[in-house]
Amino acid sequence: MRELVYYVAVSLDGYIADPQGRYDAFLGDGDHVEVVVGEYGDALPAHAHAAMGTTPPGTRFDTVVMGWDTLVPALEAGIASPYPYLRQVVASRRKREVADDVTLTDDPVGTVRRLKAEDGDLDLWLCGGGRLAGSLAADIDRLVLKRHPVLLGAGIPLVAGATDGPQPFAPVGSRTFGSGVVVEEYARVRA
């Protein structure tokens, strides 16, 4: 079965964005970028690939799942479909207008469980945000955290509102870069 991978940048104090939803405190360049572009290139938006002259490798993810607030910055920049090479699923409790290649769902748990059960070799990428991660906590199979050397003090937590109790994960690996970014990977521990 395919996995739901929560791959996200996070501060030292556990926030994926500041209180206004901004993430510009995270490092955009440094030696960790090779991993971001290489190993996780499927998780870069199309406009970033265009600017760098790269193409999505199509080796890790075939689907991105995000909350509405995660999509909003792209919409505000005039980008209605940030990941046209992935199946794009946006969770929203309200009916919204989205691009033709974006699927809106008001049942992210059911949607993710159906997508995970499909045949395929590539995983689903949980892009954010914190409330969506909280609602999907029991379905997250793997965490890949790009921990940036910054304290935000407040903001959008990595996981908000999880109600399923403790969620055990085991460390799989950790890589520290000269930039100060640490890429940590954890796999769910299933009973």
Automatic annotation (TrEMBL):
Signal peptide: none annotated. Residues 4-182 form the Bacterial bifunctional deaminase-reductase C-terminal domain. InterPro entries: DHFR-like_dom_sf, RibDG_C, Riboflavin_Biosynth_HTPR. This is Dihydrofolate reductase. Pfam families: RibD_C. PANTHER family: 2,5-DIAMINO-6-RIBOSYLAMINO-4(3H)-PYRIMIDINONE 5'-PHOSPHATE REDUCTASE, DIHYDROFOLATE REDUCTASE FAMILY PROTEIN (AFU_ORTHOLOGUE AFUA_8G06820). GO terms for molecular function: 5-amino-6-(5-phosphoribosylamino)uracil reductase activity. It comes from Lapillicoccus jejuensis. GO terms for biological process: riboflavin biosynthetic process.
